[in-house]
Fold this protein.
Amino acid sequence: MSKENQTSEEIRSSGMKDDELVNKHVRLNQIKHEPTKGFLQAPLIFVFVFGCLIFVCSIQLAHTTNDFQLHPPKEIVELTPEEKEALRLDRKISSGEKIFAVRCASCHQGNGLGIAGQYPPLAGSKWATANPEIITNIILKGLKGEIVVKGETYGTSAAVNMAAVAINDREIANVVTYVRQAWGNDANEVFEDEVASTRAGSVEQQDQWTGDQLISMYPDSFSN
Amino acid sequence: MKKNPEQEIDQSARFAFSFFVASAGLWLLAAALLAYIAAAKLTDPLFLSSLEFFTYGKIKVSQANAFVYGWGGNSIFAVSLWIIARLSQSLVRGSIFLIFAGAIWNLSITFGLLGILDGHMLGHELLEMPKQVWPALLVSYLIIAFIIFVVFRSRKQKVTIAPQWFIIAALIWFPCLFLFGWSGLELNPGRGTLQSILSIWFGQNVIWLWLTPVALGCAYYIIPSVLNRPIDKYYLAVFGFWCIAGLAPWSVVHHLEGGPVPMWVPAIGTVMSIAMVFPIAVASTNFHSTAFQDVSKVWNYLPLRFVIFGTLSYTISSYIGVIFSLPAVAKLTQFSIINEFHFNQRVYGFFSMIIFGIVYHILPQITGREIGTAAKNFHFWTSALGVFALLLAYLVGGLTHGVLGQQPSLAWATVIESVKPYFLITEYAFLILGFSQLVFVLNLWKVLVPNPFASSDRQANLKTA
């Protein structure tokens, strides 16, 4: 091996001069490399590898970007008054549904049918669907004694407070509207100010209502 | 006796080159000392514990800064000045400004490190030096870069080649990075998440867009120059260059995997790191298919052996880095000492090895004095051994650390106990590296500072001419 005996200096001086180095590479950049006999394979492998990488990368991105959007969609879609009204009612009813599920459904059941002999049904009950002031009053003050709902007698001598935890007018309006329109009930909507006036009208009632009291207050609702 | 143009260029660059290389060597020793202290503290927490200056956090941070800005910065100035001048075939002018700016650069780093040790550090990776030193650093950097750029502008052949792209790009990228990082982290701090993203982006990109391209440019220069054959598959180099420019800044954010940032940030980082396979493959093809056509020359010419060690290490550990950026793997390794592996692989295994090689290549040409073969060989083998031990310890230790750290049944103290042997290995590795760097600096200074009792410079120059 003759090269082993070469000193560093000899190797260095046998190297390329810098102007030559620059010019050679500039020329290399200008001429396109000519196809050699095996030239088809390398690009094909590259295309394959490229394709695989792009596939892997896009899967990776799709899994981890968490639906990222650079510009979040703006919610200024022009709605017609009818659509706005429908949207408002939808929201009110879904809010009422949540309140019902939390505060009412344990006795009256999610399907509004109550439990026979124990808890009166709300579906198809005149107490719920006739004058909204009746159900509002019941929620506000509670009920005691016996009542007759859809031909069945319910209730004991014990008083029942519907709203053991304070409930505001808006929540009452939402839940009453829900009850009056769910399970085939088809009564009109109840508004917050109506509940407020009912609440104001019932301040003198200290005790729970009795069924007879309510029937005498709203005779129209119970006459067939 | 008339000098040939290359010797004239060497003569014009000699003053500035020697200054930068000499100061780079001193910073390298400082960093080696700090690295050893930091490693020793991990195995023996009581080591130097009575001195407030030498708490682990300060030492670790000042080591990284001394290494990147002191050794990295100075050696980048030196080799880019020389390579750009040689490839442009034009003389270096304004050496006095280079020395002046270089002095400011080194003084600023000195004050910055003293500031860190005194407890005035800032909280962002590689931006820890106190804020008073940064304007001085930036101004001196701009002066140096401007002078190198002037040399580049006056080049004879107007069409540029690969080493020029990488080196000039690195010179331009660093101030851009710095201005982005500085304005987003200090002048007008972004809120919350933005800061941590910007912080990791800056800290990683100093390595990826400053140290890495310069080292790649050096390899693109020295390999064809010494082997006397053009780069094989040179047409790929331009693709590799633009891939690094486009992908590297994105890929670094994969380090935030599992962090409190929007999920798309590390996801993009992962995707871009996978795409980094292309530039790594291109650089590796260019270097190795050229170099392995003449293995005996690579082996016998020590500067080239250093450089090929660096490029091989770049290839292997960059691929390892790609694997560690995959979320499935990152889950295990994210919060372990594997991060030390990434940093040390880049700065010791890749950047420093290539710079050692290129400095050994340039020094005899500039000074006319040859460095002893035995000393160079000792430097090579100790460096290689140190780098191997260091990287293996951090790699295996990091995997152990990460995997054990995921076991809920193991106490954290038990996990740390099991990593301790690796810390001991790194301590010895840093010791070996320190010795090898000491030999490098002694080699360096021996040829740079003329012995007043020996024959004068002129005679030495005549001998080579």
